[in-house]
Amino acid sequence: MRILVIGGGAREHALCWSLAKSSDAGEIYCAPGNPGIAEVADCLPVSSGEIVELADFAEKLRIDLTVVGPEVPLSLGIADLFAKRELPIFGPSRLAAQIETSKVFAKEFFGRHGIPTAAAEVCSSADEVRAAVDRLGYPTVLKADGLAGGKGVLIVESAHDMKRALGLFFGERVFGAAGDRVLVEEFLHGHEASFLAICDGEVALPLPTARDYKTLYDGDRGPNTGGMGGHSPAGVLDAEGSSRALREIVWPTLRGLAQEGRPFRGVLYAGVMVTDLGPKVLEFNARFGDPETEVILPRVATDMAAVLSAALSHGELERFSPLEVKAEVCAGVVLCASGYPGVTVSGKVISGLTEAARVPGVEIFQGNTQQDGDRLLTGGGRIMVATATAPSLADAIARAYEAAEKIQFEGKHFRRDIGAAGLNRV
């Protein structure tokens, strides 16, 4: 089987690493990839947004399975283009991906199909946002309608926060066109979890749950990022909670999208808040999460290449239900460049990877790295994820941090409380 993975971050490194273990995997390609991915796949100098070039490549090499990592190519309609050329691709159509690419569409969709979520209002000006916050009260959540790399969510707890948030949305326009419409949403109290399912348009096959730590600093402080680490399982969804999330959120979403002419084939990722009234959906992603993928895939024992291939054919996915999941816990710590999620400096030498990889149960998934001869350099943003599997959450966290400490580069920053919430619950 020839496989093409689209993307070049730690999520795609984890995907290539997992797919390479398949007994059916032959040649694996990744576009554009990174130096870590180059150890398990052939990297192509094509960006994930160049969807025509990617389709040309898949057609020329007769790729048997293309897996889309990031959201941008989905929003550009890569799955539609591949479908027109009869090229097999695992990822939703542009219309189906709107469940992620437009927060407003998603919220209105939840209302049409009775999916439990927070109350919200759609606003297009600073005055409308102020009025909506007055009605909903503090704390309130402001969300950019469009794609913002996981950073377009602000929690407003006071008039001071409100002034700053309005400046970012409508003054500085840090979210660009993605912030032209703002979803003003009720603040839900509870515990967050990431609930991902592989879908073939009709059937949803759940992956192990995960917990993502979004904010930059310890104690859930600071700006939102693309994710600073996580662990699997989430620790806040027991068997009954997972069943409710599947029954009340994922299945109705899958049915609703099909009814509206947007059948969903790909990974449906529900960000869930586990409240006293049960799970409620915060938002959806239309692809594998990052860094959730890096802590989920090391726990999946089922052949992922076979599973994703089955999702492309009607009626094949059910034979893999349920997935075989290892009993170990997996934890991951994101190492990022100084200044992230703002402007960061690149070109810093990375060392200690060999030593880190010797820690039992550890896998290092590279994100924004660059190769310069024999030197591995930082590329800015999120540099890599140190993950570790172990029999317990405490052991997995300890191993991940041991590996994280061994990796060195100037300006290295990482949270030191990944998994603390899970340990407190235990």
Give a quick rundown of the structure:
With 426 residues, this protein is an alpha+beta fold.
Overview of this structure, please?
30% of the residues lie in helices and 26% in strands. With 426 residues, it is of the alpha+beta class. The protein has four domains: 89 residues, Rossmann fold (3-Layer(aba) Sandwich), CATH 3.40.50.20; 68 residues, Dna Ligase, domain 1, CATH 3.30.1490.20; 130 residues, D-amino Acid Aminotransferase, Chain A, domain 1 (2-Layer Sandwich), CATH 3.30.470; 97 residues, Glycinamide Ribonucleotide Synthetase, Chain A, domain 4, CATH 3.90.600.10. Strands 3-2-1-4-5 form a five-stranded parallel beta sheet. A hairpin with an 8-residue loop joins strand 7 and strand 8. The radius of gyration is 20 Å and the shape is globular.
The CATH C-level name of the largest domain is Alpha Beta
Please report the total strand number as a whole number: 22
Shape: globular
Number of discrete helical segments = 14
Number of domains: 4
User: Are there runs of 5+ residues with pLDDT below 50, and where?
Assistant: none
**Which superfamily, in CATH terms, is the homologous superfamily of the largest domain?**
ATP-grasp fold, B domain
Q: According to CATH, what is the topology of the largest domain?
A: D-amino Acid Aminotransferase, Chain A, domain 1
Strand order of the largest sheet: 3-2-1-4-5
Rg over alpha carbons: 20 Å
- Oligomerization state of this entry? single chain
CATH architecture of the largest domain: 2-Layer Sandwich
Could you tell me the mean pLDDT?
95
Distance between the ends: 42 Å
Structural class based on helices, strands and sheet pairing: alpha+beta
Percent helix, as a range, is 25-40%
